[in-house]
Amino acid sequence: MTKILSVAALLATTLAFSGGATASEDVGDAIFSISRQKEIVPVDNKQYKEECGSCHFAYQPGLLPSKSWEKLLTAEALSKHFGENAELDKDTLKVIHDYAIDNAADKSFHKRSRKIAIATEHVEAPLRITEVRYIKRKHHEIPAKMIKGNKDVKSLSYCDACHTQANKGVFDSDTVKIPNFPDWDD
Amino acid sequence: MKKFCTLMILALFVAAPVAMATPATDALLAKYKAEGVTKIDAAKAKSDWTKEAKGEDGEPIACSTCHGTDFSKAGKHRKTHKVIDPMSTRVNTERFTDEKKIEKWFKRNCNDAWGRECTSQEKADFLTFLLAQ
After folding, report:
1. Which residues form the domain of B123?
2. N or C: which end of chain A has fewer CB within 10 A?
């Protein structure tokens, strides 16, 4: 009986130790990445960047949930992409579709993507980033004259008109500069 | 000497459009010819460039709406405002160097501007016209 107990104790200690080691690494990782995971993952796929970015700001996949990308990135949908023909060949479409799905808001642990995922969880898949409740709320207090009525902005769709580090996935208010309104402050 | 100069100037005129062609455009023009194009009409492409049709959103649209008419200057997408690099191969050496890319944009842009794909004849005309810019 004593033998069994001591074996059990040894086993328990070993487990606790190994478990402890893993847990502390995890905690370290988590703390380290919390500081890095505030924003949106920047685009790191060359084809995605090129194909989407040749017509508009290459919106990061983490700005919409995967159910939205599923709707947007089909051959049929792309032939009428917000009124424009944005057809891609089959192979390119697969790369872009898969990249968007794999990095969609609901697959990401980055802060803003999480908020977008939560805001879109129980509603019909939005087709526009500007329809996402969280995005709307974030821009709610900015007067129309600074966006719609601003000749150098015109619409919320042009992220990088004001978000100076949008291409890095950084949408923090400290990095915002509204053209023609140098005194604007959040 | 005078004769030589005249010859040189003449040679420039003859050589210029050819010099601007790329392997990609050579291959495409050969393809369009194989598809039945016999006579290329760059003048028609010139007038088609500014020919307005009704776009999907009801607004008039032509090639020049986004690309402009000064081919040495950048254009701007009418909706997204994205800068479109110059069409002239003289100032934009990247232009018309990728066969797949040229066909991709012909397909998209003809559909957007005219609501249909362009014929091989129209593409041959446009390409020849643009290469001379």
Report:
1. 22-131
2. N
ipTM: 0.77
B83 touches chain A (CB under 8 A): no
CB contact under 8 A, A87 and B82: no
Domain annotation covers residue B39 = yes
* B3 in a structural domain: no
Within B1-133, where are the H helices? 2-19, 23-34, 42-49, 63-67, 99-114, 120-131
Compare all CA atoms of chain B with the CA of A83 and give the residue at the minimum distance. Answer: B56
pLDDT 10s digit of each residue in chain A, 186 long?
455 555 455 444 444 444 444 445 555 555 555 555 889 999 999 999 999 999 999 999 999 999 999 999 999 999 999 999 999 999 999 999 999 999 999 999 999 999 999 999 999 999 999 999 999 999 999 999 999 999 999 999 999 999 999 999 999 999 999 999 998 887
Judged by CB atoms closer than 8 Å, whether chains meet at A55 and B81 is answered as: no
Asked whether residue B103 is assigned to any structural domain, the reply reads: yes
- How far apart are the CA of A77 and the nearest CA of chain B, in angstroms? 13
The pTM of the whole model exceeds 0.80: no
DSSP-derived 3-state class of residue A22? helix
Select the residue of A57, A83, A157 nearest B57 (Cβ to Cβ).
Answer: A83
CA distance A136 to A126: 12
Domain assignment present for B94: yes
